[in-house]
Write a structure and sequence with these properties.
Blueprint lengths: L6 H10 L11 E2 L1 E7 L6 E7 L9 E4 L3 E8 L4 H10 L4 H10 L7 E7 L4 E5 L8 E5 L2 E5 L7 H11 L4 H14 L9 E7 L11 E7 L5 H26 L3 H14 L4 H13 L3 H14 L2 H7 L10 H12 L4
Antiparallel strand pairs: 1-5, 2-3, 2-9, 3-10, 4-5, 5-6, 6-7, 8-9, 10-11
Length: 332
């Protein structure tokens, strides 16, 4: 069921800021977010949480080699693609944001932040955004929030981001967690998202995204986003392990698969495919305990193994039959 916006609130907003742009959403995506550029890697990212369904579908925008944008409050999504377009043309974040705010008759109820590929940052909190609201710009980042429980949320986010270690995704998460710990959205929690892109774009844009995860509706969306980021990292280690196998670097493969298993110790998918890869590369002894764990929890993985000959995952002929027999014997 769609939430309705209180008529009195809409009337007040209309009187205070003339009218919203024709066709622009009147959804009150009041929230807290962060945009940032990693000074070491050049990665660009945005993370957000709101008491609104699917916040990740409207607030965060980013493009490799260009910048990142968070558009919120009585959100106008135009700031996302248009902001990226202007920054891609060479405009600094401040000039891009100023141009868009100037042309927006509803700017008084907008909250927007941008960071460009050079780490230049700009933010706008409209005069009619709902308290507690505000933003704080630091070196290479901006944190912003509105309709918060208290005014401590924004400075807590900045402090957490600056103190956090790890990659950009980890630091963005730290800012969200600090906001929630300080009180967060006065209405509570519902959805969250994180988007991180590479420092430079390519002619294969599907490879330019580092992390893109959304929690659409959850009792504790920031905590769930943290879980998903860890799982994403586990699968990245799996991919790295597969690449190592392709290069016949089995020591590196075992290292990567081990890292994946530590991050997702109960994920049968991660354990199983690591075991299959090792087994088909002559490392069945290392794969046996992994197969044993998977088969003990769910015997259907045994049946899946029997089906791996058709796509050529198992070796063909007698070699494949012997390997399959050896795998099927595990745990029996």
């Amino acid at each position: 069921m769609r939430r309705s916006i209180p008529l009195g609130l809409l009337a007040a907003v209309a009187c205070a800021s003339a009218r919203l742009d024709a066709g622009s959403p009147r959804r009150p995506v009041h929230t807290f977010s962060i945009v940032a550029r990693d000074p070491t890697t050049g990665e660009l990212g945005v993370a957000v949480q709101s008491h609104w369904f699917s916040v990740g579908s409207v607030v965060p925008w980013a493009k490799a080699g260009v910048g990142a944008v968070a558009t919120q409050s009585f959100v106008n999504p135009m700031y996302g693609p248009r902001g990226l377009e202007l920054m891609a043309s060479g405009k600094p974040a401040a000039d891009a944001l100023a141009e868009l705010v100037k042309g927006d008759k509803g700017e008084a109820v907008r909250q927007v932040a941008m960071v460009d590929a050079k780490g230049r940052v700009a933010a706008h909190t409209g005069s009619k955004c709902i308290e507690a609201c505000g933003h704080q710009v630091g070196e290479g980042y901006s944190v912003q929030a509105n309709m918060m429980e208290n005014a401590r949320v924004v400075p807590a986010m900045a402090k957490a981001y600056e103190a956090a270690k790890g990659n950009l995704a980890e630091r963005l998460l730290a800012a969200l967690e600090a906001a929630q710990k300080e009180g967060g959205d006065i209405r509570g929690q519902q959805s969250a998202a994180i988007l991180v892109v590479k420092a430079k774009g390519s002619d294969q844009p599907w490879d330019d995204t580092v992390v893109s995860l959304r929690v659409e509706d959850h009792e504790h969306p920031v905590a769930e986003l943290r879980r998903l980021v860890a799982l994403h990292e586990a699968y990245e280690h799996m991919n790295a392990g597969d690449v190592a196998v392709e290069k016949d670097d089995l020591a590196k493969a075992r290292e990567e698969y081990g890292a994946a298993a530590r991050l997702a110790p109960d994920n049968l998918e991660v354990i199983y495919w690591a075991a299959v890869t090792l087994a088909t590369k002559g490392q069945l002894d290392q794969a046996k305990p992994m197969f044993e764990k998977v088969f003990a929890k769910d015997p259907r993985w045994r049946e899946l193994t029997r089906r791996l000959d058709k796509p050529g995952i198992l070796p063909k002929g007698e070699e494949g039959k012997k390997l399959l027999d050896a795998i099927e014997a595990i745990g029996k």
